[in-house]
Amino acid sequence: MERLKKLGTLRFVSSIEVSESPMGLGMEKLDRDAFDPEKVYDKVASLGVKWIRIQSGWQKTEKKEGVYDFSWLDSQVDNLISRGLKPWLCLCYGNSLYDDLAKEYYGAVGCPPIRTKKAYDAWLRYVGETARHFKGRIEYYEIWNEPEGGWTWRPHPNPLEYTEFAVKTGKVIKENDESAKVLTGSHYEDSLSAFNEEFASGILEVTDGVTYHSYNYDESTSMQKAKAIKALAESYGKDIDVIQGEMGSQSKSGGNGALNWVRTNPDMQTKYLLRHIVGEIMSGVLFTSVFSAVDMAENLDAKADGPITTCGYFGLLGAEFDSKTGTLVGDYYEKPSYYAFRNLCALFNGKITPAYIPSIFTPGRSIRIDGFDTPTKEIISGGLSATGILQIL
Q: Would you tell me which of 98, 259, 309, 362 could form a disulfide with 119, CB atoms 3.0–4.6 Å apart?
């Protein structure tokens, strides 16, 4: 590496300068007040990222039957748009006004409103109100989050149940905003079984794009998943966009949430993000989204009386976590992953598409390392075609 010649330095861009990009970041859980967004907006916009995943929070919006207060969500959406960011909305979770099960869990997490007609009808009215309210500001709507999980689709996940729910929800979205795009799936499993059952059952009727999540230290698995999902949809006669909607690694051992059993540190988090982001973009996703902007309280099984006393250290921004109150305290600081992510945002600024590079890797003996090159089977390679405004200082 010491023989490489420095050609220049990337010019970092703010999101307002970016017209198109495959780079995304999550600002989820504000329906549960997991962090202070005012401390995050400017730091996120300074990255040059484009797509921001947010969650709708039915329970926070409709606290009295038939009365909708979108002011908290308006603030997020408008703050993001004003900084050149493009929010996309995951419609979730339940509402204790209509469902006894939703009364048991913090934020009504994982409680689909399907057990009574009253709850179902109330959900569809809420979806219609949401689509009308944000018409012209939000284009992509994702239906639910990880519906194959027992903690996110209680009490028992069922692909056919989710399909019916998604089709009804998707039709209401499009009835109230004809320009809206509907995203389904949001699955985390390294399997096509749920996607296949849903595709076979008619979910593609309302589907413009499919999302998947990737919490796996082998980035090649995620690359396979994106291509396989698209091919599976094509076998059912539908050409769809594929989006990696949630992936990440914790920067500290002992946190709660995905991959909490894996030894990790800030450098390992950074390498995870770099490998996965590049791999997913090479696989042809419309965009890829990192979870998350900032560390936050993490426990999807938390009971309604709260607070959540465990933290997930997935953020590009870190903060001190008060386990007694379940809140972040002090200023939010940049981790190494923040700066690595900013580098990729500067590099992938524009329209990025996979491209085949005609090359053959032939490992041989290397004098420089006094040994043999890495075997070809251990190398993941690919090419990208860019039409952007990459600038070198």
A: 98
How far is Cα 362 from Cα 374, in angstroms, rounded to an integer? 9
For residues 373 and 28, give the distance between their C-alpha atoms in angstroms, rounded to a whole number.
42
CA distance 317 to 292: 8
Give the integer Cα–Cα distance in Å for 376 and 139: 42
Distance CA 103, CA 182 (A): 28
CA–CA gap between residue 176 and residue 153 (Å, rounded): 26
Q: Are 165 and 112 in contact (CB under 8 A)?
A: yes
CA angle at 208 for the pair 275 and 220, rounded to the nearest 5°: 20
Would you state the torsion angle of the CA atoms of residues 106, 31, 270, 212, taken in this order, to the nearest 10 degrees? Answer: 90
Tokens 């952007």 identify what position? 388
Judge residue 389's burial from the number of C-beta atoms within 10 Å of its C-beta, 0-12 exposed, 13-18 middle, 19 or more buried: middle
pTM of the predicted model as reported, rounded to 2 decimal places: 0.96
Question: Model confidence over 265-310: pLDDT tens digits?
Answer: 999 999 999 999 999 999 999 999 999 999 999 999 999 998 999 9
Provide the pLDDT for residue 369: 86
Q: In what helix (H) or strand (E) does residue 54 lie, and over which residues does it extend?
A: strand 51-55
Q: CA neighbours within 13 Å on the CB side: how many for 338?
A: 17
> Ramachandran region of residue 8, left (φ > 0), alpha (ψ -120 to 50) or beta?
left
Q: Which amino acid is at 32?
A: R
Q: Give the other-Cβ count within 10 Å of 29's Cβ.
A: 22
Q: Which two tokens stand for residue 186?
A: 């949001």
